[in-house]
Amino acid sequence: MKKLVVLGLAGLLSIPMVGTAQKRTTKKATTTQSKTQSNAAAQAAQEKARQEELARQQEAQKQSEQAQLLMTTSAAANPSARPISPSDVMFKKTVWRAIDLREKQNKPMFSNGKQISKLIVDAVKRGELQAYRSDTLVTPISAQEFLANMTPAESGGGLTEAEKAAGFDAPAADDGWGAPAPKKGGKSTAAAAPAPVVSNELLPNELYKMELKEDVVFDKKRSRLYHDIQALTLIMPAKYNSLGFEKPIASFKFSDLVRVFRAHPEEAVWFNEQNNSQHKNLADAFDLWLFSSYITKVSNVNDARLDEVYGTGKKGLLAAQQAMEEMIEWEYSLWSY
């Protein structure tokens, strides 16, 4: 009897010990499983980040190859949309014209949401149009440089080197709203918020100035005068330039522009206000000369603009009118009756 009692007590005492061991084993298994899941999640996150980085690199390489191909193709292309054989050219004069898209006659090219400047900027951003540094069309520029040229520079408010050396650019002890400055050697309690990326590039309705470069050519085979457009330049208006004068943003080959106009007929619209069923493509509008402009420069030995020779204001406009009439008169004088 005593032996049975002793065995019963031993059995009762062993039960909690077995339960505690099972709990420890279960807890250890749970911890191991949690660590395994955490490691798997970390590996999956690393693999996802690696795949995203690889995709970004491939996309960047693809964009670089496309930009290089566009640059090569554009450089080899003729700037004229309808080139005339040099053997047929009896007379040629290079003329620069200013186009103000705010004028009533130019409004069809500058309709709301379908501005010609918007179409050009979007085409450069998409990688469909090659921009050049000047209307010589020799030095191509990247889309990033084009956008930088289109962004007005911040004016005023900066410190001189002497003021920076004197410590005026040191951070203030208070942020102006009562927040205490962090203690020396201590850590700041609030993390610095990243500065928001703000784009200051001009809007399409602010790019209302353009300059057109053309070759006035007399074709002796067809016996007529042609206005062979070579390049179109976007101009930053003087009021958006901190230096106070108009600044060229970028130039484009007219043949490249015609290709973009034809590829996007719904966006490249010359708006016909009198008959909405007869809107025209911008390429046709330039061919038909459906815009207003005035001459700013005629090729000369000093490469001088008319306002530099005759002065600005009324004198410059009269000189532009005279230059246009001289070309018309030259064409008329070729004929005899």
From TrEMBL:
Top-level division of the source organism's lineage: Bacteria
Keyword Signal among UniProt keywords: yes
InterPro entries with a match to the protein in the record: Gliding_motility_assoc_GldN
Disordered: annotated span: 24-68, 170-192
Transmembrane segments: none
Keyword match Repeat: no
Composition-biased stretches (Low complexity): 24-46, 57-68
Pfam families registered for this protein in UniProt: GldN
Basic and acidic residues biased stretches: 47-56
Keywords from the named record: Signal
Signal sequence bounds: 1-21
NCBIfam families: GldN
Name of protein: Gliding motility associated protein GldN
Species in which this protein is naturally found: Rufibacter quisquiliarum
